[in-house]
Amino acid sequence: MATKRILVFFLIILLLSIFSIIYPSLTGKASGQTDYPLEYATLQRVIDGDTIELDNQEHVRMLGINTPEKKMPLSNESKAFLQQFVGKKITLERDWEDTDKYKRKLRYIYYDNRFLNQEILELGLANSYYMSGLKYEKQLLSAEEQAKDQQIGIWKKSTELCVNCIKLKELNPTQEYFIITNECNYDCTLDKWFVKDAGRNTIYISNMSASAQKTYDSNGKDIWNNEGDRLFMFDNKGLLVLFYEYS
Fold first, then answer.
1. Do 212 and 109 reside in the same domain of the chain?
2. Which of 111, 122, 149, 231 is a plausible cystine mate for 244, CB 3.0–4.6 Å?
3. In terms of residue numbers, what domain contains 229?
4. What is the mean pLDDT of the chain?
């Protein structure tokens, strides 16, 4: 009996190991090659720069991008880009994940052979977001890199006096804090300057005295992903001060 139980135990372990290997390909996450039926709808309303409502009242979150939140710099511009397609027939394509935690459909959006997720990134009106395993990961990252190289949209560089003074000394994603320094020998007024991650989390920073150092934590929130994330710092006009990413 003991021998039989041991054999059963090892068989279970073997089956679990096989399942862990083939599961990603079954979901389409690993290869990104699963083809899902295209969907067709009319764009009824634009909620914000990366979220729309269809004529059947379903909400759709655009895959692979994150646009500025409402009332933040460039939020109106990203929303206006999508509003030109209101009332028009669009095509939707899903990837390995169907919906998010808010029950919104996760989709790539097309209009008349235009890939809108990609265009928003090319215009610098969004940053790439949750790209790992997506079917069009390389294509979308290339679009973002194009905007970054051209320094447009969210990648437009700040010309504020202190832009070369403020440096990121450390970002600790596990303990949820970052440290910035003022490397200049004069005070820096940083009113309405802010730091954000790749998503919607935003932290406003305060003025810094000459040669000062400050630590900012997340106030108990899980902001920085341990597996990889980004840190953007923008001035009071929404222009880029610094950018850092880790994986």
1. no
2. 231
3. 157-246
4. 90
**Cα separation values, 220 from 65, 174, 175, 176, Å:** 26, 12, 10, 8
Given pLDDT bands bounded at 50, 70 and 90, which one contains residue 13? low
List, for residues 49-86, the tens digit of each pLDDT value.
999 999 999 999 999 999 999 999 999 999 999 999 99
Which of helix, strand or coil describes residue 139?
A: helix
If 0-12 CB within 10 Å is exposed, 13-18 middle and 19+ buried, where does residue 1 land? exposed
Q: What is the pLDDT of residue 106?
A: 98
For tokens 């809108």, name the residue.
116
Please check whether residue 125 is in contact with residue 153, taking contact to mean a CB–CB distance below 8 angstroms: yes
Asked if 44 and 139 sit in the same domain, the reply is yes
What's the pLDDT score for residue 35? 86
Query: Which residues have C-beta within 8 Å of that of residue 242, sequence separation ≥ 6?
Result: 166, 167, 168, 231, 232, 233
Residue 104: how many other CB atoms lie within 10 Å = 17
How many C-beta atoms surround the C-beta of residue 99 within 10 A? Answer: 15
User: The whole model's pTM is what?
Assistant: 0.84
Q: What is the CATH number of the domain that holds 183?
A: 2.60.40.1260
Distance of alpha carbon 212 from the chain centroid: 31
